[in-house]
Each structure stands twice: as structure tokens, then as C-alpha cells.
């Protein structure tokens, strides 16, 4: 046979073999990818309902890009952040002449970091140390470093309308706002000058949140400001102004309206009649969530159904961080039976869902995280205050047995208070 013919036949055989191999690989690929075959290797068998049996345009699937998905956000809110002398002294490093408060937030940082919106009441001022020394009750003034720790802990908004807003007078209000905002944290409730609006508007992943803040009192210090400055710089509870603010939030098409109210009687574990009357007004005017502070103890929480919408009130979330406890309040004539509750606080954990198609808002899955404030000695002889989420630490080796007993008491009492009616 001619040598050229033999070579041609050999090439034909090789091409045939190659074609068979290519066709085999293609068939395998089609089977694996589900092209012209079943996804037999996927451990997730296709159910009959997933098989398209008609024109997709007639029966759009849930993955249709034209169907707008729901938006879900998580809000975490808590009560009073205060800094007393033992906290300030405990955070001071004499070697560097600086303060570091991060340790107080170490156990809760992850909780706030993963919230879409984290809010607390900052009770006090950061007026610097040129006029006022760093001090606690009755005129709170903390080092700027407290704000570094609060920022690092994950807070987005600080409420500044409370009975200690005027502790360092007008200059203190202004500097406190400046120092908070310089760290990228929003403020609501006090103002350096007449604001365009008293309402803080936040767009959180496409959900518009309106936050307003008011206080019942400023500890009798109203007279240190002129009537004009008092009117514009601090939100004192005034029903006319509150209704104006709610109306403004509605004009801005707020999806959710939150009112932070500094109200009630200190150390009272049940809300008073004025709180209930104000809550009724707020809810009926259009507020969706009311978060209370000032009593320094936890008060009950309640759910309401108004005009087909679920609304929520936490009358007082207690202390988030302070030096108030059994041992420290006795000199002020407050019994241990009452003062022990000042060690307790909660983080209110709320989910907000916005329907992608209708825009309807749902307040749902309201939970709470019980907190207890530890106070103890450090290895170098100092004092530390640490906020502990109880459920994470009540069995931890990081906490001593006596603290666990106090945690258990706190957990029992908090659970009883936060049973939502």
C-alpha cells in the first residue's frame, strides 16, 4: 500500500478517536451542568414545581429580576451610658497621661457592630478639662476618649437630650456635639444652633428612619440658658413640638419613626401615668417605636396594634454602663433592694422589613439581650467596669462565681420586666 495512503488513513483514525473523546467530554459537561439533561450530581434534586412547563413570561419565577426583593434591617438600641469617677479613674493610665475606655465595651462590641443601626443615650457631656474637671454626678463631664470607645463599639447614633445635657452649660452642649460628630456618630436631641429640623433622618439600606429625642427636664438648669437658646438647643418635652416633628417625619416619607424619650421617675420599675399618656399620644400621632431612658432601671415593654400596625414601647431600658449598683447608691439613701436593679440593662433588638413590591413596613421579631455591669479590680490594682451580655457569660470562666450569682438575679428580674404584653 502506498505510504501516503497509509499515513492518510492513520490521520483519519486519529481524528475519529479525537472526535469521540471530544463528544464524550461534551456529553459529560452537559449532564453535570444540566444542559439537555438532569442535575443528577447536585444532591439537591429538582422538585416538579421547579421545572418550567410553560412560557416563563406567563409564569414568572421568584428569581425574576423585575420582582423587587424585601429589605430587612436590624436595629439595636440601649439605655443610659454614664461615666462616674471610678470609671474615669479606672481608665486612666498614669504612665501616658491618657484614658482608654475600650475595655468596658469589649463583651458587647460584636453585638452592635453587626447591627444596621445602633443607638444609645449618652448621659453627660464632653466639655474638656479647661473649665470643668472630669467628674460624675451631679455635673457629668467625661474625657473625649469615652467617645472613641463608643465609636469603636459600633454605635451610629447618640441621643443627647437628657437631664444632664446642661451639666457644663452652653459651651458643654456645643463641644459635646462637636466631639461626637467628629467621630462620625450622629446626634439628636441637642443642637449648637437653631436646626433646620429637630428630626434626624437616616437612610438605612433603603429604609428611611426618623429619630427624635426629648427630655422631661434638665435638673433645674434651664435658667443657665436664655429662653431663646433653651428653645432651640435642647428638646424639652413639648407636645406641640413633638407633633410638629412627627408631621415633618411623615412629610419626609419616613418608613419608621423612633422616639427616644428621657422620662419617668428615677429607680421606679413601673412607668408612671405621664409616660403612658405621652406614649399614647406618640403612637396615635404616628410614632412606631418608643425607647425610654432616665429611670436607671428597667421598666416594662409593651406591644400595640394601632390601625393595623404593630408598634412597640420600652418604657425604660435601664443602664447600659455606669457605676450605679448596690454598693455605690447606699450613701445617697437608696436601699439595696432598689439599687441592685441599676446594674441591669437591655439591648432591644428589632427587625424592620420593607416589602419590595408594596413598600409596606413591618416591625417584627422584637427581642432583647439582658445586660449586667461588672465592677472589679484589675491585675494592676485598678478598677474596671465591663458590660456583659448575660447569656453569653453566665457560665464563662471569665466571670467569678459571685458575679455569676448577681448575673442570675439580674437575668431573672430582667426577664420578668421584659415580658412583652
From TrEMBL:
Record key words, sorted: Membrane, Transmembrane, Transmembrane helix
UniProt xrefs under InterPro entries: Capsule_synth_CapA, CW_Biosynth-Accessory, Metallo-depent_PP-like
Superkingdom field: Bacteria
Record has Transport as a keyword: no
Location of region: Disordered: 36-67
Capsule synthesis protein CapA domain sequence ranges: 74-324
SMART domains reported in the protein's UniProt record: PGA_cap
Transmembrane segments: 12-32
Record bears the keyword Cytoplasm: no
Family: Belongs to the CapA family.
Protein name: CapA family protein
Amino acid at each position: 500500500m502506498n505510504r501516503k495512503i497509509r499515513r492518510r488513513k492513520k490521520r483519519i483514525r486519529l481524528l475519529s478517536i479525537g472526535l469521540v473523546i471530544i463528544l464524550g467530554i461534551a456529553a459529560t459537561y452537559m449532564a453535570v451542568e444540566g444542559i439537555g439533561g438532569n442535575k443528577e450530581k447536585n444532591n439537591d434534586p429538582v422538585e416538579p414545581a421547579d421545572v418550567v412547563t410553560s412560557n416563563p413570561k406567563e409564569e414568572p419565577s421568584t428569581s425574576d429580576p423585575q420582582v423587587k426583593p424585601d429589605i430587612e434591617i436590624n436595629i439595636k438600641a440601649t439605655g443610659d451610658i454614664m461615666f462616674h469617677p471610678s470609671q474615669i479613674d479606672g481608665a486612666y493610665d498614669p504612665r501616658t497621661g491618657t484614658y482608654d475606655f475600650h475595655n468596658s465595651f469589649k463583651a458587647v462590641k460584636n453585638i452592635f457592630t453587626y447591627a444596621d443601626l445602633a443607638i444609645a443615650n449618652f448621659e453627660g457631656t464632653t466639655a474638656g478639662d479647661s473649665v470643668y474637671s472630669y467628674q460624675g454626678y451631679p455635673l457629668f463631664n467625661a474625657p473625649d476618649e469615652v467617645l472613641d470607645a463608643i465609636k469603636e463599639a459600633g454605635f451610629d447614633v447618640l441621643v443627647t437630650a437628657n437631664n444632664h445635657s446642661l451639666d457644663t452649660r452652653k459651651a458643654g452642649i456645643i463641644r459635646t456635639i462637636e466631639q461626637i460628630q467628629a467621630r462620625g456618630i450622629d446626634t439628636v436631641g441637642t443642637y449648637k444652633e437653631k436646626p433646620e429640623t429637630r428630626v434626624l433622618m437616616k437612610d438605612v439600606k433603603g429604609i428611611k428612619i426618623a429619630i427624635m429625642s426629648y427630655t422631661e427636664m434638665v435638673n433645674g438648669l434651664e435658667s443657665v440658658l436664655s429662653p431663646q437658646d433653651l428653645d432651640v438647643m435642647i428638646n424639652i418635652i413639648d407636645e406641640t413640638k413633638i407633633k410638629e416633628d412627627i408631621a415633618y417625619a411623615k412629610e419626609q416619607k419616613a418608613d419608621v419613626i423612633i422616639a427616644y424619650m428621657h422620662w419617668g421617675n428615677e429607680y421606679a420599675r413601673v412607668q408612671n401615668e405621664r409616660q403612658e399618656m405621652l406614649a399614647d399620644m406618640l403612637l396615635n400621632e404616628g410614632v412606631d417605636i418608643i425607647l425610654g431612658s432616665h429611670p436607671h432601671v428597667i421598666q416594662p415593654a409593651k406591644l400595640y396594634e394601632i390601625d393595623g400596625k404593630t408598634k412597640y414601647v420600652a418604657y425604660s431600658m435601664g443602664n447600659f454602663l455606669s457605676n450605679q449598683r448596690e454598693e455605690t447608691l447606699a450613701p445617697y439613701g437608696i436601699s439595696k433592694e432598689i439599687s441592685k436593679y441599676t446594674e441591669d440593662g437591655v439591648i432591644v433588638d428589632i427587625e424592620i422589613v420593607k416589602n419590595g413590591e408594596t413598600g409596606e413596613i413591618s416591625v417584627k421579631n422584637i427581642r432583647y439581650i439582658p445586660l449586667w455591669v461588672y465592677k472589679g479590680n484589675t491585675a494592676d490594682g485598678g478598677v474596671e467596669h465591663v458590660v456583659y451580655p448575660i447569656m453569653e457569660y453566665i457560665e464563662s470562666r471569665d466571670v467569678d462565681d459571685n458575679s455569676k450569682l448577681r448575673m442570675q438575679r439580674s437575668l431573672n428580674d430582667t426577664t420578668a420586666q421584659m415580658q412583652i404584653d
